[in-house]
Amino acid sequence: MPATTFTLDGRNLEAITIDFWGTIALDHTLQQRRERRAEYMLEWINSLGRPATRDELLAVLKQYHDLWHEDWLKRRVTHGALHIVRYIAEKFGLDAGEDQIVEFARKLDDTLKEIPPKIMEGAGEVLAELAGRGIKLGIISDTAISGPKSLDWLLEQWDLLSYFPVRVYSENTGAAKPDPKAYLAAVQQFGVPQQRLLHIGDLESTDILGAKSIGIAAIRFDGSKSEAECKTCSMADRVVRSWSELADLLLGPGHVFDHQP
Fold first, then answer.
1. What pLDDT band is residue 255 in, cutting at 50, 70 and 90?
2. Of the N and C termini of the chain, which has fewer Cβ atoms inside 10 Å?
3. Which residues, in sequence order, are CB contacts of 185 under 8 Å at separation 6+?
4. Cβ distance 196 to 15 under 8 Å?
């Protein structure tokens, strides 16, 4: 039988949750998706009989970004594609029915499929090894215009979806990191004590703060950052710079990377 537990600094653990953006996904295409979505938005607004300029749209999107950030900061919630489409329809006074709004929101969400990010180097190999050893794996990810279905689609394209029976998305739970509810939702689905959970993520102020605030072990993943952040300032139990380094830490001798030339 494969092992179902592992240790970190002498602490026995049996489940791992992993952040998506910046930890599994290396996203160098975000700006491209934003540009494509702006093009779609302008086309949609004009198609509904409301002539609009790109500058008008960008001004509205700036207002929306400020609103989105305020809701995240104060209420720890994130908004998806449907929310921004309704906002745009209201701001531009569009005569759009609910079916049209839902259809266009889906188009914005699907932009992730048109312009996807890349998987982080080594992530697939290490996740396969962890899953093969019987370690429980889950995702905890905040979502925005790219919602749960798009992220699931991407995980499937990378042959990773089956490794993650537990997937906690802020759009579904109404709780964004570092809200403890995001982590406790995973704990409940795993059926393990939170003291036996490890969370891995790239952001100190969300991934690490949220996990450590309720006694969950945490590793900060810095592999997607162009410049190294302060290790000694981190609340994380460990800080790693790559999936290979993470494998050394969690899997020890004999893991998949040991067989690579």
1. low
2. C
3. 168, 173, 175
4. yes
What pLDDT was estimated at residue 230? 83
Q: Model pTM?
A: 0.93
- CA 151 to CA 155: how far, in whole Å? 6
For the record, the structure tokens of 213 come out as 């605030």
Compute CA 180 distance to the chain's CA centroid, rounded to the nearest angstrom. Answer: 16
Closest to 82 (Cα-Cα) out of 146, 164, 163: 146
Task: Show me where the domains of the chain are located.
Answer: 6-27+118-259, 30-114
What is the DSSP code (8-state) at residue 168? E
pLDDT(257) > 60: no
Q: Is the pLDDT of residue 229 over 90?
A: no
pLDDT over 80 (residue 237)? yes
Question: Please, what sign has the CA dihedral across residues 18, 20, 21, 23?
Answer: positive
